[in-house]
């Protein structure tokens, strides 16, 4: 493991190309449906663990004032290179870990997407992150996030997957440790350099298998109310065997 980095140094340059299969507009539609159910209009949104900012820019184009926060300078550097149509207010980006979230003011809603919560592999840090989110939400503000379920992470044990584009090739292997409840992704990343040369790099990522009961307890401990669970991009209760579930929670109105 020591030869690989645990950040996004290797993946940052090719992350967007490797995730072209993610239907970001459908995710944004789901978020807007969540927002539309609120009594108070939502204008300012925090995109926590925003990565390269794809969702931040998409929601900005839909009229929201966006703040993107991520712990990876490399991913934020990719976000900084993106542009928006004239007249659209660009997101503000900050480099911070979730558990040390520190904004200049409050927001109407916070979203944390693409199983970013699972990447916080220490429960104590996730509990602090939830507390920081609540602190910077407006009274009555909404928190929306998704997670990979424990069953899904366990099912990945021993898997090998390949993602490739014209400029990059990624091989990743997965291993699930039942005692630690952690799924490890070991990635070899090959990116085209000058001429016919390819550069090899790699990194290791981990996801923690949080149960819905644990996450609900963490949210309650942080002071959230009206905690609900939904199936993958569906306004229904999660079904047995669901790979991804969504949570919504609210900061109490004062």
Give the distance, in angstroms, between the N- and C-terminal Cα atoms.
Answer: 48 Å
Give the strand content. Answer: 25-35%
Strand order, largest beta sheet: 3-2-1-4-5-11-10
Percent helix = 10-25%
Q: What general outline do the C-alpha atoms trace?
A: globular
**Tally of helical segments:** 7
Rg over CA atoms, rounded to whole Å, is: 18 Å
Give the low-pLDDT segments.
Answer: 1-6
On the 0 to 100 scale, the average pLDDT is: 92
Features:
7 helices, disordered N terminus, globular, alpha/beta, 7-stranded mixed β-sheet, 254 residues, 4-stranded antiparallel β-sheet, 11 strands
Structure description:
With 254 residues, the chain is α/β, with parallel strands linked by helices. It contains seven helices and eleven strands. The chain has helices at 15-18, 24-36, 54-61, 73-80, 123-135, 150-155, 212-222; strands at 44-48, 65-70, 92-95, 107-112, 137-148, 160-164, 168-177, 182-192, 198-208, 225-230, 244-250. The chain has a seven-stranded mixed β-sheet, with helices on both faces. A four-stranded antiparallel β-sheet has the order 6-7-8-9. Strand 1 (44-48), helix 3 (54-61) and strand 2 form a beta-alpha-beta unit. It starts with 14 loop residues before the first helix and ends with a strand. The model is unreliable at 1-6 (pLDDT under 50).
Q: What would you say about this model in short?
A:
With 254 residues, the chain is of the alpha/beta class. It contains seven helices and eleven strands.
């Amino acid at each position: 493991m020591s030869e690989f980095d645990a950040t996004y140094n290797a993946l940052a340059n090719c992350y967007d190309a490797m995730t072209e299969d993610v239907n970001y507009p459908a995710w944004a539609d789901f978020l807007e449906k969540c927002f539309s159910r609120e009594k108070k209009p939502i204008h300012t949104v925090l995109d926590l663990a925003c990565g390269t900012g794809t969702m931040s820019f998409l929601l900005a184009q839909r009229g929201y004032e966006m703040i993107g926060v991520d712990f990876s300078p490399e991913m934020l550097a990719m976000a900084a290179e993106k542009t928006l149509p004239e007249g659209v207010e660009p997101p503000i980006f900050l480099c911070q870990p979730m558990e040390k979230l520190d904004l200049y003011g409050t927001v109407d809603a916070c979203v944390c997407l693409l199983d970013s919560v699972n990447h916080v592999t220490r429960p104590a840090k996730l509990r602090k992150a939830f507390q920081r989110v609540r602190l910077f939400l407006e009274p009555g503000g909404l928190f929306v996030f998704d997670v990979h379920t424990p069953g899904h992470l366990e099912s990945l044990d021993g898997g090998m997957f390949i993602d490739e584009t014209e400029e990059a090739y990624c091989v990743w292997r997965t291993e699930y440790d039942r005692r630690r409840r952690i799924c490890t992704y070991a990635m070899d990343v090959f990116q085209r350099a000058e001429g016919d040369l390819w550069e090899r790099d790699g990194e290791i990522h981990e996801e923690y298998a949080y149960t819905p009961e644990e996450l609900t307890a963490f949210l309650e401990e942080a002071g959230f109310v009206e905690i609900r669970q939904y199936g993958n991009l569906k306004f229904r209760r999660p079904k047995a065997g669901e790979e991804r579930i969504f949570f919504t929670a609210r900061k109490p109105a004062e």
